[in-house]
Amino acid sequence: MLDLAILGILHESPMHGYELRKQLAVKIGTLRAAISYGSLYPTLRKLQAVGWIAEGDAEDESAAPAGTEVPPMTSRRGRVVYKITAEGKERFQELLAQAGPETFEDQGFGVHFAFFARTDPATRLRILEGRRRKVEERREGLRDVLNRAAERLDAYTLELQRHGLDAAEREVRWLEELIASERSGRTPGPAPQVGTTDMKPRSDTPERS
Amino acid sequence: MLDLAILGILHESPMHGYELRKQLAVKIGTLRAAISYGSLYPTLRKLQAVGWIAEGDAEDESAAPAGTEVPPMTSRRGRVVYKITAEGKERFQELLAQAGPETFEDQGFGVHFAFFARTDPATRLRILEGRRRKVEERREGLRDVLNRAAERLDAYTLELQRHGLDAAEREVRWLEELIASERSGRTPGPAPQVGTTDMKPRSDTPERS
DNA sequence: GTGTCGATGTATCGGCGCGATACATCGGCA
DNA sequence: TGCCGATGTATCGCGCCGATACATCGACAC
């Protein structure tokens, strides 16, 4: 799971750990708390060991894209800059495409969804529908409790169930819209995504800082 | 965290592991997935070791006399019924009252909230406000991203942020209502908690809503 | 100049809790 | 009679978190 997230971020641009974590926080922080360093660094080392990422020895990456007035930070120091390898990119695509059961769980879904711009349309649809199914099951479970066993629960527990049910219903509706959007071809925004190989989203943004 | 949840369920009635997990699922399953057996049984053993729960005598099983020379070598497992001890009840109240930082996290909050009917009003208010603060921070973070960095994100990531923001805004509103409800004394339901002789009005945070 | 304070940056350690798995009993039902 | 699914207890590996420890750097004070 972290593998996918880290590869995805490094796919956009080489980065060192600290920065990586911040990017990760805004990218997938919606459904999942920020990644802990206790997870990040060991994972980085593991990914490096299997050859999916490598230590890039360059700060001069920042020199390449013009127009980037490198914001305050990012100066030279003994930082370790990681970049994704060719093998890592392959593996990233594999991980994106394969949707196991945990893909439909909160965290897994969040990570996959965050990289939808790089995912092929068929997989997107599969994941959205799997997630919808998951949330629908949860919704039905909550409805059952509220209909069948409401009188056995105290008011607070009941209120918690209601709030959870509301959230589940909303997410299902949200997913419905996204699915309809996918089917009609109009993906939400500027990402028509044709071609199976190496599609990059609006990579015009330097992505620094 | 699991300690609190298990003590809370066993506080209502003695139970064996399998049943306990099912109860737990409906009680706190809203904000948290069902507890795994890989967590449940070790925790039960730990709680038993420190004396907060004890094995209750499974009476109906003992209906057959002790002349059970039937089991050859395989240790026949019976169902183990656990019940909370007096010390466990004390500890439960302590855990309920103490609200550390993880109390305001998704899972921690869910567990605490599920037992609000057993929590004193002052603590309820404290926890609700702490949670609200937490969710507000998250909401502000998402707003910042959407206002300041929207153009650097692809459409899917953006959509994820929007959905997260919507959920955060809803939860804040939900919490506001609960807080108002608490303050006005009309707690939602059959747990007025009036027995407390000296409830201090606890003139609370200047932040009102 | 130097003190120390907050942000940046890398790294480890203990432990919680999950998912998979194993094993055992019991009631249907074909 | 034999299979199957629900009930029930238990363990193991490991992913990830939270706390913690260091070290450097710019800034502002004194």
UniProtKB/TrEMBL annotation, chains A, B:
Residues 6-94 form the Transcription regulator PadR N-terminal domain. Residues 199-209 have a biased composition (Basic and acidic residues). It comes from the Bacteria. Residues 179-209 are annotated as: Disordered. Residues 125-159 form a coiled coil. Keywords: Coiled coil. InterPro entries: Metal_resp_DNA-bind_regulator, Tscrpt_reg_PadR_N, WH-like_DNA-bd_sf, WH_DNA-bd_sf. It holds the Pfam family PadR. The keyword Coiled coil applies. This is PadR family transcriptional regulator.
